[in-house]
Amino acid sequence: MTWMIKDAFLHELLGRMSVEEKAGQLNLLTGAMDATGMKHSGDLDAKIRAGLCGAVLNVYTPAATRALQELALASPLGIPLIFGYDVIHGHRTIYPIPLGLSCSWNLNLLGRCARMAASESAADGLHWVYSPMVDISQDPRWGRVAEGAGEDPWLGSEIAAAMVRGYQGNDLADPASVLACVKHFALYGAPMGGRDYHSVDMSRRAMEETYFPPYRAAISAGARTIMTAFNDIDGIPASANRWLLTELLRGQWGFQGWIVTDYTAVTEMKNHGTAATDADAARQSLEAGVDMDMVSEAFLSELPALVESGAVREEQLDAAVLRVLETKWDLGLFRDPLARCTHQPAMQPCAENRQLAREAARESIVLLKNEGEVLPLSKHATIALIGPLADSRRDMLGCWIAAGDESLAASPLDGFRGVATVVHTRGCGISEADEDLLAEAVRAAKQADVVVLVLGESWQMSGEAASRTDIRLPECQRELAKHILQTGKPCVLVTMSGRPLELTWEDSQFPAILQAWALGTEGGHSLAEVVFGDAAPVGKLTMGFPRSVGQLPMTYREKPTGRPFNAAEKYSSKYLDAPNDALYPFGHGLTYGKFRHGAVSIDSPEMQPGGTVTVSAEITNLSAYPATETLQLYLRDLVAPVSRPVKELRGYQRVTLAAGETQVVSFQITDANLSFPGRDFQPVVEPGDFEAMVGPNSRDLRAVRFARLS
Ligand code: BGC
Q1: Mutation test of ligand 1: which of 182, 262, 399, 401 has the most ligand atoms closer than 8 Å to its C-beta?
Q2: Measured on CA atoms in the order 111, 116, 121, 123, is the torsion positive or negative?
Q3: The domain 351-540: what is its CATH number?
Q4: Residue of the nearest CA to atom 10 in ligand 1?
Q5: Measured on CA atoms in the order 658, 659, 662, 665, is the torsion positive or negative?
């Protein structure tokens, strides 16, 4: 019944729309509260008043959205606007950058963070967030790895689904729900050389096995919108790729929502060299399956004439318009268009949200190394807190901070101050050496009991348009580190960055290294909790840290090759000057405490079709206090019609053990875990031998074998 009312309403409305107004609904324009691309939308107010704009990005707050919504309501048809924004890791309360938060491997926490971001954005007039970014990437030169969940498609899929559910909730009309926008479809995480916006050249197999799964998972979880990628796929820009958007996404995957391009991606097709004019680009895009044009205005300016000339069928336009209108209906916009812009929300993160941000930051920190159990530090020690990031609130927030306010964030110094006696000095700038600061830092180190060096990247060094060919710490920071190490004081390195860094030198010099990403509003406090032992680190890397930039791109999920690594054999797959594997592999992350990893066993050497086998691993906490570990299950299909990765994550469990306790942790393996894209790219489960491996990271694993029967 409700469905019939909705359908009748939408069709009646469509029937009253001119072609210009239809093109207007597909026109997404930007306001000026933030700048996220090169082009700015002129005449925003006039276009809205004329009914030539369907949605707006980069405008938020009840007052600002209300002013524009009232213009839309005064337009000839009074169709309300949708307001979208890049709420990537929180809106007012900022939680860790997505790559950091993914290291929690905590889906419940991720979902709660997304829910918090949804309710804060909805209270600020927004309906639509441009998240989750689910682009798998194996190349930390690409600055946008900061926005994703790392290198693994299986974990990436779980995270994508949890985020979508968090944002959208059970009902879009819920005042605390927003539309999710899965991005960037597709393959944006694999630009050549790690250079942002560069072209992508990829096999269908890599697409199916590695890059597509998280987009699919997000769509299965109900994501209502999807954003195209800037790159081309097989020479055809994603925003004009009919195979990708219509045959695959809508046809095979059953996507029912709407497709928006990325910022000016329609007119950028002229730069790709695949469209001669804006009209050509607009036609290609609409025909490929795009519904909404972000900022380029080619749909608005070109579609009416294209329909008029018969180059574009009006039914095609109608289908896109209906998808947008339907979403407006589902958001409750036709019922109460001003619902989200009536009440003044809290401008500051509330205590409850800060608490969640603190939990999220705590769980995102990864202990990379802790030789001699240097960490945690005693609260009675005098600490020299040194480094250009040691007191930077802005850098603690990271890239894309929506309405986040740096003055409300906690830097490492803010966090340490209340806990221990701290002497703080910068030592150098992010990339600029300074003799006086260096001398001051050395003096501070000499007077302290322990040094905590906080080094890494500024917030502008990762995120969009922030690729790097050298992913070591900037030279002046390495110089600072050398001088501090020479003082002979015990020294802990805290690295803040939006990407895995090359830390080979640091690994050889520092006894303890904590990876602290950009942890968000509460970052400094969470860092202090971990450094001083009020909380133990639990994070596990979702992207390996390379030994050298020369290894990139790289992943633990590599294929076996015909000449597998053999140190003693010249003609095997290896480098002359570096090992093959990561310095810190996928899944790596230590905690305070030590474990003994015991035998791994299997309940049956054979698995029936449709049946299960259970793999069990014994783990003992050798420490004198409780400790938490995340055990991981990896599988390998030993013989298959297509070469299968040497290992692939298929499960994990976080367990907390009392002092001295032993637990047996079990994983059930079903056919779903064994499935892979066969020669025809359709999912297949093959009989034959498999290896199941369990351990605390993707490198230190114990294996058992079983056979899947036919
Ligand atoms: C980015 C998107 C973002 C959009 C809108 C683009 O430049 O690639 O991720 O959602 O801008 O701000």
Answers
A1: 262
A2: positive
A3: 3.40.50.1700
A4: 130
A5: positive
How far is C-alpha 279 from the geometric centre of its chain's CA atoms? 34
Q: Is the CB of 86 under 6 A from ligand 1?
A: yes
pLDDT digits (tens, 9 = 90+) for 280-338: 999 999 999 999 999 999 999 999 999 999 999 999 999 999 999 999 999 999 999 99
User: Which residues neighbour 146 within 8 Å (Cβ) at sequence distance 6 or greater?
Assistant: 97, 98, 99, 398, 399, 462, 463, 498, 499, 518
Question: Would you say residue 1 has pLDDT above 70?
Answer: no
List Cα–Cα distances, 603 to 320, 355, 599, 685, in angstroms: 53, 42, 13, 20
Q: Is the CB of 34 within 6 Å of ligand 1?
A: no
**Ligand 1 lined by 644 (C-beta under 6 Å):** no
- How many angstroms separate the alpha carbon of residue 30 from the centre of ligand 1? 11
233: CA distance to ligand 1 center in Å? 19
Best residue among 34, 263, 292 to mutate for probing ligand 1's pocket (most ligand atoms within 8 Å of CB) is 263
CATH topology of domain 595-708: Immunoglobulin-like (2.60.40)
If one counts every other C-beta atom within 10 angstroms of the C-beta of residue 469, the result is 10
Question: Ligand 1 centroid to 263 CA: how many Å?
Answer: 6
Distance 35 CA to ligand 1 centre (A): 10
Domain ranges of the chain: 351-540, 595-708
**What is the sign, positive or negative, of the torsion defined by CA atoms of 353, 355, 360, 364?**
positive
User: Ligand 1: does its nearest atom lie under 6 Å from the Cβ of 628?
Assistant: no
Task: Please write the tens of the pLDDT for every residue from 149-192.
Answer: 999 999 999 999 999 999 999 998 899 999 999 999 999 999 99
Using DSSP bridges, classify how beta strands 688-695 and 702-708 pair: parallel, antiparallel or unpaired: antiparallel
Pairing of strands 128-129, 366-370: unpaired
Residues contacting 672, CB < 8 A, separation 6+: none
Does 185 contact ligand 1 (Cβ within 6 A)? no
Residue 281 — left, alpha, or beta (φ > 0 → left; ψ -120 to 50 → alpha)?
alpha
Residue 217 backbone class (left: φ over 0; alpha: ψ -120 to 50; beta: rest): alpha
Tell me the pLDDT tens digit for each residue of 576-604.
999 999 999 999 999 999 999 999 999 99
Q: Which two tokens stand for residue 309?
A: 């000339």
As beta bridge partners, residue 176 has: none
